[in-house]
Amino acid sequence: MPTPGSPLLELVGISVSFDGFLALKNLNLQLAAGELRAVIGPNGAGKTTFLDVITGKVRPQAGDVYFRGRSLLGCNEHQIARLGIGRKFQSPRVFEQLSVQENLSLAVSEPKTPMGLLRHHLTSTQRQRIHHLLDVVNLAPRAQHRAGSLSHGQKQWLEIGMLVVQAPRLLLVDEPVAGLSDGETERTADLLKSLAGDHTVLVIEHDMEFIRRLQTRVTVLHQGQVLCEGSMDQVQRDPRVVEVYLGASQEQQP
Amino acid sequence: MTLFFESLFNGVAIGSVLLIAALGLAIVFGLMGVINLAHGELMMLGAYTTYVVQSIFKLPPLEPLFGAYIFVAVVVAFLVSGLVGLLLERSVIRRLYGRPLETLLATWGVSLILQQFVRTVPLAWSTGLWLAALLGLAGPPVVNRLWGPRQRPWLLRLGSWAVAMAVGVVSAAWIRGTLPKLARASARNVDVTAPRWLRGGLDLGDWTLPIPRLVIIGLTILAVLAVYWFLNRSLWGLRIRAVTQNRAMGDCLGIPTQAVDALTFAMGSGLAGVAGVAVSLLGSVGPNVGGDYIVGCFMVVVLGGVGSLWGAVVAAAGIGVLTDVIGAGRLLEIWPRMPAWLQGGVEFFATTSMARVLIFALIVVVLQVRPAGLFPQRGRMAET
Amino acid sequence: MANIRSRWPQLLLGVVGLALVVALPSLVSPFRLNLLGRYLSLAIVALGIDLIWGYTGLLSLGQGIFFALGGYGTAMHLQLNCHGCSRAPGGLPEFFGLYGVQQLPWFWEPFHSPWFTLLAIGLVPAAVAGLLGFLVFRNRIKGVYFSILTQAALLVFFNFFNGQQKLINGTNGLKTDLTRLLGLMVGSDTMQRYLFWLTVLLALLTWLLCRWLVRGRFGHALLAIRDDEARLRCLGYNPTPFKTMVFALAGALAGISGALYTVQSGIVSPQFMAAPFSIEMVIWVAVGGRGTLWGAMAGALVINMGKSLISEAWPQTWLFIQGGLFLLVVTTLQGGVVGWFQEGGPRRLLGRLGLRPRLSTYPALALETRQEGED
């Protein structure tokens, strides 16, 4: 068991290169339990690669990832997911041939083995969780529809629903509001805020208004490194952040 | 020492047949992601082409040149199989890019049709048919190149097809008349007579190198070098590689991607035809001759690493040498005093078909360690 | 919650079907009945292929291995227990005498027992498939690589069985016609009638099993593997045991199918493992409709009947037709015939012919209510 003060997730000196291109270099980051953290950064800053490292899709060349004091290196994607790390992908990835409800019940099922699915029915708590989530993400009327027939925004929400219904300790949310309307964006922000506390949430987003609305600590990634950390206001005043976003002196950087 | 060289030579010989057969497949699979199960049948067409060419060269006016027919056969086989490949790409494969499993099924259907085609259509008529198709397609571009663009393209096309049809029918009728062997359809195997210089062996003291094997090794080396040069040094090769890496970008740069697709596939198919010439030197030619090679070819491509030319070379050589070492029970000669239980095992696998059993097992083992083959493609592209 | 009124067409269908199955042996000639029985047993292997390919997205070109293993198991048992057959010295099955084999190979021994044989028909192919599948899936080898490897495995087994005269009579195969089972000659009309009924029963049971698997969350997980395996991993699923299990199950079904086919065709030979036959199996499923159980079964039945009828009339044309079917299925009829009906193909066809029927309701709404009613 981790001691109360120790971080839930800790990345130490992570470096990843693709054919010589350094996507992440010596990245360090800590996340406390119950925290809601936003990660921003210009295109190519390594945001998605950084999630790939945590979820085991990409093996770093150097560094280590600790989750609740345990190294995640050498774990498969499904083992990491079972440890309690859930992920929502950048463009919504739901199972389009399955209905909304079937998508959610795959996410909620436990244990996630062939025999587990064949032998056990969903428990009533699991069913309640699905119904609750259907209401939260506003998809109750469409529960029996194929996920492929949903709109882009609805798919985003379904994927968030799948993520939450898994009941992970850590939620990695990659661009949750891309393609959502203003109202939906607000609701998403409220949903993520309400999840923090019980869960630890890490959000990657481009939409600055959305980040501001989260009212939380922000980490800025740039060229595979942490540029600065702080509240949204602090970060926005930081000259280095202004520089990388407005590209004032890109040429000076190697 | 002799044993070592003999084994090495036999292995390289077996491997070179595999490699020349796999070369076209490696291109089509590696560059286009198309699983061409009709590849064996394209080889079969090449082998039959060799048979037709050598039959024609047996006729009195050409007989003095009989020794050289094999070179003509290589060119004609390349053209015939390439043409069939071109038609195949334009009609079917084009619709299936990005869906490799579907290309697998479609090309299997094509292979059935080609097999049955050879069984039911007399060689004389199919010769006329391919000749006509070749002339009809090649006519307009050649005329345009030689005498400048025509005023009425449709007239040119019509004219060239009319000429092509006439030539096709006349030549088919002529072959029918002069070579009665080619006049009837037959499912039976035929034998290609090798020219005299291709028979026999090269004496090297203790042992002899069979000449056909040497010629195939030479042909394979030539083909590999040609493919390497074409892909890495020529303009079309550059275009092919560009389209493979990023089709949309290639389109934007004005590369005629559809022409690139057609050319790549036709070239892969043409190489199958050349492999067919090689195969016809080794045994009799029948409608099923392609099926014997196709799985071996895929093993070469998968073991070498898809998209890697040198991987295919190494894999083919490796499989060839192992086939010889296991299939001929060489281990017994190297190590005569091996324990009885091991000896039993070696003898059990000492046939060509049992050697295949063991080699497949070994390939599965290798893929356990290197799932993407011996020389995998790296980078972000390779993930998808 | 469907009440009896909405079920009555199904009930009627069941009753008529049952009556037909019971009466069929007296309606058609023993020859046709035997063919029908064989094709029904092929429907079982087709169901297995549908599970792995239609639902899980793994195209196996090597189902012939498992089909033949089931057949060989049955034939070995029948040859060992053939009272009154002519025998080689030492009481061995006759063919051993041709090669001068004195002692029964060790792996024949357990096939003396009928119970072992019954188990082995399903479990041996399942074990082989499971092992092969595990080694392949563990490394995330999928798509066309899997297909190529299964085809290579098929070739290996074919070579092995073809070359081993002293063990299993090599290329000649094992005959079952003149052997006896439960006191009846296997090739006799009476026995063939029983075997037909047995095949119908097993095909029905297999269908029910597959339906149960496919309709639950297990089936949903299979579809998820087919459509987006990486996403499913991130939900905490390990696809490897799912794929291994379903491949082993398809292997077992192929084994059962092969056993039934062997006793009805009278022989098992390495030809069961010829590459074209295994790919043919795929086309039954593709034409019938991958991802639909009915489609797979109907495809196996209809195509094989068509094959035998057409081959009787015009033997030259069948390969052309079969080749054409492959092209048709991948270019225009991707959902197969059943898929075409489900996607409203007949209505579109009518529309194209200028006979579009009037719609009284908004089509999407009609679709949605039907889907809701189904669950």
The poorly predicted ranges of chain C are 360-375
* Whole-angstrom Rg of chain C: 22 Å
N-C termini distance of chain C: 9 Å
Major beta sheet, strand line-up of chain B: 1-2
Structural category of chain B: mainly alpha
Could you say which structural class the secondary elements and strand pairing of chain C correspond to? Answer: mainly alpha
The main β sheet of chain C shows up as: 2 strands, antiparallel
H/E series of chain B: HHHHHHEEHHHHHHHHH
The SSE order of chain C reads HHHEEHHHHEEEHHHEHHHHHH
Beta-strand proportion of chain B:
under 5%
Instruction: Work out the number of β strands of chain C.
Output: 6
Q: Please outline the major beta sheet of chain B.
A: 2 strands, antiparallel
Structural commentary:
- The complex is a heterotrimer of chains A (254), B (384) and C (375).
- Chain A is of the alpha/beta class and 254 residues long.
- Chain A has helices spanning 47-55, 77-83, 100-108, 114-119, 124-136, 152-165, 182-195, 208-214, 232-237, 239-246; strands at residues 9-18, 21-31, 36-40, 62-67, 70-71, 85-88, 170-174, 200-204, 217-222, 225-230.
- Chain A has a six-stranded mixed β-sheet with strand order 6-7-8-3-9-10, sandwiched between helices. In chain A, strands 2-1-4-5 form a four-stranded antiparallel β-sheet, with helices on one face.
- The longest helix of chain A is centred in the middle third of the chain and has 14 residues, at 152-165.
- In chain A, 44% of the residues are buried.
- Chain B has helices at residues 2-32, 39-57, 69-91, 100-120, 123-147, 153-178, 211-233, 235-245, 247-252, 257-282, 291-304, 309-327, 330-334, 340-348, 352-369, and strands at residues 201-204, 207-210.
- A two-stranded antiparallel ribbon of chain B has the order 1-2.
- In chain B, strand 1 and strand 2 (207-210) form a beta hairpin.
- The longest helix of chain B is centred in the N-terminal third of the chain and has 31 residues, at 2-32.
- Chain B is globular, with a radius of gyration of 22 Å.
- Chain B starts with a helix and ends in a 15-residue tail after the last helix.
- By secondary structure, chain C is mainly alpha-helical.
- In chain C, 72% of the residues lie in helices and 3% in strands.
- Chain C is globular.
- The N and C termini of chain C lie close together (9 Å).
- Chain B binds chain C through residues 35, 92, 95-96, 99-106, 108-113, 115-116, 119-120, 291, 295, 298-299, 302, 351, 353-354, 356-357, 360-361, 363-364, 367-368, 371, and chain C through 59, 132, 135-136, 138-141, 143-145, 147-149, 151-153, 155-156, 159-160, 162-163, 275-276, 279, 282-283, 286, 316, 319-320, 322-327, 329-331, 334.
